[in-house]
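ERR on first pass: missing label on line 2. Operator R.T. fixed the label and resubmitted. Corrected input:
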Amino acid sequence: MKKTVLRKPKGFIDVYKHKPGAEKDRTHYCPGCGHGILHKLIAEAIEDLDIIDDTILISPVGCSVFAYYYFDTGNFQVAHGRAPAVGTAVSRANPDKVVISYQGDGDLAAIGGNNILQAANRGENIAVFFVNNAIYGMTGGQMAPTTLLEQITTTTPYGRNANTDGFPMKMCEVLSQLSAPTYVERVSLHDAPHIRRTRAAVRKALQNAKERKGFQFVEVLSTCPSGWKIDPVKSMEWVKEKMLPQFPLGVYKDVSNEAVAVERPVPIFDPAIVWEKLGISSVADVDFPRGDVPDEYRKMSIRVAGFGGQGIMVTGQALASVALEYGYNVSWLPSYGPEMRGGTANCSVNIQDGTIGAAEAVKPGLLLAMNRPSLEKFEKFIVPGGTLIYNSTLIDIKPVRNDIKVFAIPITGIADELGNTRVQSLVNIGAYAAITGMFNVDHVVELLPKLFKGKKQAIIDLNAKAVKAGYDYVKENF
Amino acid sequence: MARMLMKGNYAAVYGAAMAGCTAYYGYPITPASEIAESAAALFPKLGRIFLQAESEVAAINMVYGAAGSGQRVMTGSSGPGISLKSEGISYCAGAALPCVIVDIMRGGPGLGNIGPEQSDYNQVVKGGGHGNYKNIVLAPNSSQEMCDYTMLAFELADKYRTPVFVLTDGVIGQMMESVTIPEPVKELPDKSDYAVFGNPLHKNLVNSIYIDHDDLEAWNMVLYKKYQQIEENEVRFEEYMMDDAEIVVVGYGSVSRVLRTAVDDARAKGVKMGLFRPITLFPFPVNEIAAFPGRGVKHVLTVELSTGQMVDDVNLALGGVIKSDLYFRLGGNVPSADEITGKVSELYGEVK
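pass 2 clean. output:
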């Protein structure tokens, strides 16, 4: 009888250099294990499809943790169950490459169950080979999500019980219900005709992957004589007799013909284009000249307080934004911590030259109180000699302090007269400019299009009126 | 100059974009969600990748995949999410993959709350996940530093092929300040010696498993020496009013801002107080703190938003020559400058 010497498929590394020890020409798998057969089918396929150099293989945790010993591809070894997540990023980084996620049943269907589901649902451009041998092999024969009912494992010593352990997990059935996957098939390695069918499925998945046709999923029913504690021949029979009825073979989904190649954007790094695309190059620093600001208003720690909807945060941000254009250092901090409770909203603003320390205006130099609870709560913290601006439209009590400067301004009333309560924040800015001399009211108006970028001209015009009204009220009444 | 008013969370993403970060993988969590949101807004404009992962665990494993593919990659989260990411960070450290992780600390343990705390110090600075590894940890205290140190984080990550944390709290993340946007990097580093590209020239292996005991010991020694090198080269800190200080307050992040104000207040009353602010938490400024007694420092007060995590490192550095006292607030409460000066008077009385 003629003896034919078969060569190793080129998809395999010739000498398994990553494998420790002396046996660098054989795999670490047990006799009768299905992994070796599936490895060979994949190695042959990537050679025949001419994608050896374009393939990145992801090895999981499980018996195939060392798959990277064998394949002459780019290789990742990853955390238990996370191959689809790693594969997602690898594929996004290398959109024109073939990414293979090789996983076992514990890895894919138990600890990594959500990762496979979500990668499938995003239609990630990866080919998944899922080895289902109904047991945890690497850790010594514990129950897998695919373990059959009544099957004995080291963690189901009395047999898997549906009542306590649930039912065998049917991944093809689950994944084929999703919209995104391109190809989902279950095959088996239990005899030669079925190995041939598996060979075809492997090739189809990899051909689709080569054409960037999204998510490919091939579940392979496989043998684990060591875990099952039966010999290799009986293992083949066990797959046929026990597993096939539970895990019907066949194509569960195939839209390969309609699938279009996944396209990914090309990242931009050119510095000038980066700045332009992010709108940074169009940011013009204004650098207004400062007016004659009294000493007491040159370093400001401001608390703005009121209830939600009164433009508290906008007032604070606008103060900081305008001050920035005079070259001050500024900070704005929204109420954070216990102040969030109790119905009042507040923020802290610091405006000064030099480094700003504490961001929260614990002892403000200026309090802008928009409602009565805010006045009651924060008046006592104003520094002696500091300034209080309060909204006299809504606050029907008088401040109690007599060691501070007080400006009662009908802020809500002024805004209402302009026809829109929401412009209260701009009334505030105008009043602040008049009281402190820190901002020139014309500068503030000039800045409005920048502060309210994208707003209609009518809104900008109304805001300008509000700023002037706040400013004029202070000038006319104090 | 391009000066913009923005929150620390946004500034970190601008820093990342300028550093050539190509991919952001993250999961929403308060108070860090704005990092993901701003990456979602900015990165697609640059053809770069933003993906909202199905979980924190998935996000960090995507980071592993992107880093192994040679990309500059970032994720962001807060305490509970960092706990979930710990396994993946250990894998990144074990496979020597560079990546940047921003942690905007919130109150814990458990679900805690969304107020600012500094209680992730131990899990971030000491490693966090399993195995012998450390993260480089940068602790910014302003929006500008959120931008600049995120950018620096990418440089250090690539220089040492290791995960780098940008660690701060909700105050710095949520606060708006002026940020001058730095110039984008012109060239990204060549990573072909280890990254997997799926081409015939670079059939690299990204891996953290060494089944042979001697091999794993040897690999751990490589990592160990790397961390020693980091300790020698990368210590960063800031001093304020330290020249003649007899009392030193030590704090990082938002606390250091309060301490700065407290130092100003104390100095106004003639108290010789100074601020020492570690900027790198690993490597910790051990030698600089050990030098305190020799500089005439008599008292050290460490202030944290945690029940004494950093103070252990301060005391190790002081070596028992002086003992650092500790003051902390918790649960989202932040001390005021008056609280600090009050504590200093209570502990050290009238200081000459």
